[in-house]
Amino acid sequence: MTGLNDEQGLPPEFFEAGQASFVDFLRAHSPELLPVNRTPEAARPLDLPHGTTVLALTFPGGVLMAGDRRATQGHQIAYRELNKVQRGDDHCAVAFAGTVGLAMEMVRLFQVELEHYEKMETVPLSLPGKARRLGAVVQANLGQALQGLAVVPLLAGWDLEAGTGRIYSYDITGAPTEVRRYHADGSGSPYAAGALKKLYRDDLTEDEAAVAAVQALYDAADDDSATGGPDLSRRIYPSLAVVTADGFRAYSDERSGEIAQAVVRERAERPDGPVAPLR
């Protein structure tokens, strides 16, 4: 950015007629502050912490998002208590799998982008608009993704216009794709999605959706070493959050713990989890 304005203490670009995108503002006036421009080029992929498994599923009246708490660095556990499910704004949540440092930067930039838009336009961005904005943030990281520093977010929210919960998935190029009913991303996603395929019903209650999410993460942790299951001894449980017409609500550790402990007790009797009916 240019030097400070002597009278007002801020660079003059802050007093020009702006636009609704904070990312575009940074790209025009201070591109070095964008995460994509602050990652040094590397001759080979760096061994950095990676988040693993996240998922989302809809239910009548909302959408629930969940994630395990583990991040791995190579074959080591880098973090045991990473929260991969974050508030986007009042009516959306974002979760991530991939390079942890870049993912957290992207989430913060996405949050600022939504807040900036609402301040400039005096109305919140629509949910499809939020999905496109998040896609632009992911697309800006394509160079780093091709070096092995990929981030794959998952967006879930309540569509105020349509009156329903919606889920958007992404690839490393930032293309948003709306998915129906449920979706999982990360290294344990094949196992989590397989569990949800058997457990999901269109008439799930919120409580049932939360149990299904934890069951799916348990299956992912059972078969994927990079995904962390409920850690009862350390009291580390999956991250859970729900978005409804009333807004975003993160589950407390106590509530997540109650659900996780019930799932673990059930698995003591049936290690492979619930059995889907054949008819």
Overall description:
- The protein has one domain: 4-Layer Sandwich (Glutamine Phosphoribosylpyrophosphate, subunit 1, domain 1).
- The radius of gyration is 20 Å and the shape is globular.
- The relative contact order is 0.16.
- The longest helix has 22 residues.
- 33% of the residues lie in helices and 24% in strands.
- It is α+β, with helices and mostly antiparallel strands and 279 residues long.
Find the structural class using helix and strand composition: alpha+beta
Number of strands: 13
| Shape by Cα distribution | globular
Radius of gyration: 20 Å
Q: What is CATH's topology name? A: Glutamine Phosphoribosylpyrophosphate, subunit 1, domain 1
Mean of pLDDT: 89
Strand content: 15-25%
- Tell me the CATH architecture: 4-Layer Sandwich
What's the level 1 CATH class?
Alpha Beta
Which segments are poorly predicted (pLDDT under 50) over 5 or more consecutive residues? Answer: none
Helix content: 25-40%
- Characterize the largest beta sheet: strand count, sense, and whether it forms a barrel: 8 strands, antiparallel
Sketch the topology as an H/E string, one letter per element.
Answer: HEEEEEEEHHHEEEEHHEEH
